[in-house]
Amino acid sequence: MSNVLEHYHYLHQIPELGFEEVKTSNYIATKLEEAGYKVTRNINNTTGIVAEYDSGKSGPVLALRADMDALGHIIDGQHCARHTCGHDGHSSMLLTAAQELIKEGNIKKGKLKLIFQPAEELGSGALAMIEGGAIDDVDMIIGLHVRPKEECPKGFASAAMFYSASTTVEVNIHGIPAHGARPHLGVNALDAATMAIQAVNTIHLAPSLTYSVKATRCICDAGVTNAIPSEAYVCWDLRAPTNPAMDELKAKTLKAIELSVASIGAKADIKVSKEIPAAEIDDEVTQIIAESIIDVLGKEGLKEPIFTPGGEDFFNYPRERDVKSGFWGLGVDLTPGLHHPDMTFDTSALENGVKITKTCALKVLG
């Protein structure tokens, strides 16, 4: 047995939010240094880590990436961080694979880079690592994510995860305050927010596309019940299967918000606060991952490609840099679902992830 459960149990007990992964980052960096890697901490003044092993012989530069952050929840009225997306498992698998790869000495060419990335849930962690030069010399990058049981059960893995584009739009709506008895003297921000929500709900893309746009937060309160509210805040979540489809959906959303609010004399300050691109996956890398899955789990363990409306900021790497990318999904019998406050999975399946990760690395650098 590997050290993966030891790492997992420790990381699971210290969940930290995006860009706050101080304990997590220190633990991982220290273990990598002890294993013999050249480790650079605090990439781009964040908690991000890059570890390198150079074989000293010519060959490709392969990057393996894991995310480190936990999710924020409100549980029993208390704000807390909790690992409900499996990032502690991702980091544990990559850390364990890294330790074993250098110990076994099977890397014969090129360079291995390990990227432990902060703030995936914020959608800005990958961009911070890119800006910090983490993949400037990388030829190929591979990431992974644990999957819900109904999508990919334990003992199976998919060589290709096709994530959708995801965008968050936040809007502050400004009206004019007035007494509840004299509404004609004001502009009701609540009315404007309602109109914007309904206008966005009328947006359509081609029926062949799997997309959605919906309001996920609306805050409006004049402080009393007999006054016209002058301020409202609304947040929308957008999903689309391709980057061009997202461009269309976003443009229609922004226009619908602006025009509907203006129709009653209100104004909208619109902010696109988070944009995650759709998956860009290289066939060559997918083939390497598929062969690795078969080597570890057998042909019967290789699942078909998975298409998901979820977003993954990993895909900023191939979008921002000329790098081949692959992303795979690991079955771990995860229930009841990702981001659920009570999410759990069979941790014994992490051993499969370690083996597949090592196999991928050696097919490129061995």
TrEMBL record:
Domain Peptidase M20 dimerisation intervals: 167-257
Cofactors that this protein relies on: Mn(2+)
Q: Which InterPro entries match?
A: AmhX-like, Amidohydrolase, Bact_exopeptidase_dim_dom, Peptidase_M20, Peptidase_M20_dimer
A single Gene Ontology MF term assigned here is: hydrolase activity
Keywords (A to Z) from UniProt: Hydrolase, Manganese, Metal-binding
Give the cofactor note: The Mn(2+) ion enhances activity.
Q: Can you tell me which residues bind Mn(2+)?
A: 85, 87, 121, 145, 339
Protein name per Swiss-Prot or TrEMBL: Amidohydrolase
According to the entry, what is the taxonomic lineage of the organism?
Bacteria, Pseudomonadati, Pseudomonadota, Gammaproteobacteria, Orbales
